Amino acid sequence: MPDPSTYRPATGTIPESPGVYRFSDPRGRVIYVGKAKSLRQRLNSYFADLSGLHPRTRQMVTTAAKVEWTVVGTEVEALQLEYNWIKEYDPRFNVRYRDDKTYPVLAVTMNEEYPRLHVYRGPRRKGVRYFGPYAHAWAIRETLDMLLRVFPARTCSAGVFKRHGQIGRPCLLGYIDKCSAPCVGNVDAARHREIVEDFSDFLSGRTDRMVRDFERQMTEASDNLEFERAARLRDDLGALRRAMERQQVVLGDGTDADVVAFAEDELEAAVQVFHVRGGRVRGQRGWVIDKVEPTDTAQLVERFVIQFYGEQAGLAESADDAHQPVPKEILVPELPPEAEALTDWLSTLRGSRVGLRIPQRGDKRALAETVARNAKEAFQQHKLRRAGDLTARSAALQEIQEGLELDTAPLRIECVDISHVQGTNVVASLVVFEDGLARKSEYRRFEIKDAAERGDVASIAEVVRRRFRRYLAETGGYTGDGAPPDAESSGAVGDTASGAVEADAEPTVRTGIDPETGRPRKFAYAPNLLVVDGGKPQVDAAAAVLAELGITDVAVCGLAKRLEEVWLPDDEDPVILSRTSEGLYLLQRVRDEAHRFAITYHRQRRSKGMTASALDGVPGLGPARKQALLKHFGSVRKLRAAGAEEISQVPGLGRRTAEAVLAALGEGGPDNAQDVPGPSGPDGDRTQEPIGSEGR
């Protein structure tokens, strides 16, 4: 593996001007292309301490053997050169927004003598016009079938077209007037191309003019007593209107915009684009991409705009296509840092001014929120597909076994996470995954007492000790030394507590099956792998507890959030799994599920404490009246702001009780009206989600 210091250029030789740089591997193949306002500042960042780099960036700089750069005059030139190099070299470490192969489009082969209309999936080709993409192929076929009576263009393959030309008889579509039958000479090439161009104009949004033309022709035919022709035109007009109804009107007439939204996590991002032409959604497409280096939403926007519209412009130049590759407006969730230069570059591609902005209000804002929901849903479905795929799960378990050098694949994985607010209401979760899938019936949650002074590391140790002492007791391995197993932990099905686990008065030898119910005991099975949310201190604490209890057949690792590093006990350096590794993805899912479960339990306890503690001990205020007060005012904050007269109007409360409530709230009890920070994990990251929300 190349050492970055062997090819690092001297700092003084790197210009401070804007430019584009490229990293190459030992074989001379370009593996990454980037641009910078200051080449010196950007390139020096790649040669910092490797331990501080993003895993993907670390992999890139250790794969490369050379870095080169080109100085440019303006940021617009840098954008153009970066796009050209990415297109030319196809670097493996660059994010590529390629055409999605799963979305079908309607293709019109304008490069043929007799253009053909057909459903198509795959990369775009020269001389072909594309409409869409659509969500489903059947939607294209329904629309096409509806429009063929109005625009009877060829839809058959080259073989069918040639065969019917040889036999001199049209196909069925030719007999039912859904094809003009150019194969047998019913129309010449010029007339057939005219039909196809009218069809393309209709799908491009020039619908109002066509509707007016059909209405005028229908009226003229009726006036001339050509009733059969008028009836035909009436049916054609109805087909046009039904096709138009299938395209949802979302914005005012004439609006020409693309609406872009992202959903992302630390390693991946999903992008969704709605193409709005003439105020109607003409197409939708989406991708899920890997993040190459730490990338925020603004940087994702910049990468997307450069690559997507640069590619669209290149296709338009080489194709027999007159439509604009860049719309008048591009609506994005965040503006990139070089928005002005990006706008100038887009305007050059379009040939007129392009607006790049964030929608603030009205219909465009509402549509942007819709696109964002679609991006979030697509991202969630992508994760579920990965999680539900048997092959991917098997590969994940195999990669974990190899990466952590385990004797066997970790068919049962348990993960521990701690949640609290500044050391208060400290709770812990333990989640279980078997064969790569969550076993929610075996989730456990713990209350940690007196944890404020000890910290997260001690809390991790306590949870591990309690969990495995219970395991030893239920399988006959507990000897009775020391304190008996804890009874504070409770089981849960999903997020619903199922009651406390009682400890036996006397430790006895027993199997993992409860003789009374015939079911496995709640802590009877040990995991193959125990994961803790944290780094080296947390891992060492968990390993020390297992060693103390004499458990040697459970592997331990920790997953640190910052760089997604995997830590093993007694190792000074972490294990780095590939960012595209199914094994890393599974560990992240386990860790995130433990974090979600811990936060949910923490919020339940915090909410209960907030609503009850301030009103405890008020004379004459029992549980029923307390509940009535909270239901009437909604929160302690609003209750505190109310007067005695208003409180006394609550059914069941009198003036004296109302004054007692106000006195209790003003005597320095828990200030529940103050803002409370969100719960935090071992790394101190806080969430600002409302109580009851799931996940981070």
Automatic annotation (TrEMBL):
Give the transmembrane ranges: none
Specify where it is mainly localized. cytoplasm
Sections of the chain in a coiled coil: none
Q: Where is this region: Disordered?
A: 476-505, 663-696
Q: Where is the UvrC family homology region profile domain?
A: 259-546
What is one GO cellular-component annotation here?
Answer: cytoplasm
This entry's Gene Ontology molecular function terms read: DNA binding; excinuclease ABC activity
- Gene3D superfamilies per the UniProt record, alphabetical: 5' to 3' exonuclease, C-terminal subdomain, GIY-YIG endonuclease, UVR domain, UvrC, RNAse H endonuclease domain
The record's note on quaternary structure and interaction partners says:
Interacts with UvrB in an incision complex.
What is the protein name for this chain? UvrABC system protein C
Q: Which gene encodes it?
A: uvrC
